[in-house]
Amino acid sequence: LTYDAQSDQRLAGGDSIRIHQIRSAMCAPLWSGERISGVIQVDSPFHVGTFTEKDLDLLTALANYAAVAMDRLSYQREAENERQLRSRLERYHSPAVIDEILRGGGDTMGTGVRRLRQSHASVLFGDLVGFTSLSETSDPEIVADLLEGYFTHAVEAIFAAGGTLDKFIGDCVMAFFGAPVEQSDHAERAVRAALDIQKALFLWNAERRASGQPEAVARIGINSGPVVVGDVGSKRRVDYTVLGTTVNIAARLESIAPPGGILIGAETQRLLAPSFHTEPMGEHQLKGLTQKITAFRVLPG
Prior knowledge:
By secondary structure, this protein is of the alpha+beta class.
């Protein structure tokens, strides 16, 4: 509070006070908790001593109310931004991974847009055996029920292992482990998810056989190695995905995996703990690749 700003030594360096010929003035901080977000000022160029201590008390009270209101608006904006970001991330990640991303553990930088970067990950492909022929001979409702059930079991297993759902491709599910949050055990997570998918389908098929419904038999391929991961697409639409030879090999391994089986690449096998049991399946010349790939079959634990 100043009764005469022109003669107040505290304001001697304020050129704007002289330019605007301010006489009486009072100023209070927009103070909420331990943070000051701004100030509110009232001044008059007409009279000396226009404002009193009571006026300053009123201004201070108003400033406190304004600061609280501004904080509430800010919290509401933050909450809405987080809600929108969480809604987008739910397409790809389990709740636990989403929480880690929102805490800053991922590479979204708080926007939900994830830049392309190099990473080391394990990629999983799994599709239904005989789905095309089933689609041609069965009612759409039966096909839709089978597909929905398969995807539900697959996604639950992937999320439970901390994986990222990439996309559905027809009757195929694609997922990866090790991004956006780094996971040193991404290969084990991918294989654990694959085993859980097969186990869930085994139990589900027992129910389906009892009611005369067609069974869901999946084959799964997994490969580990370097990938490029991030949002890929156009200005109108992007998808969070992985790219690279590692992905292509995983897809090829899935195509030659036995029905109900899990086939993995040599790098995935190398990264597994001894508690996972595998058997060598020899070298395979996969379509589109010049070098042969050593494959291993994962045995039920």
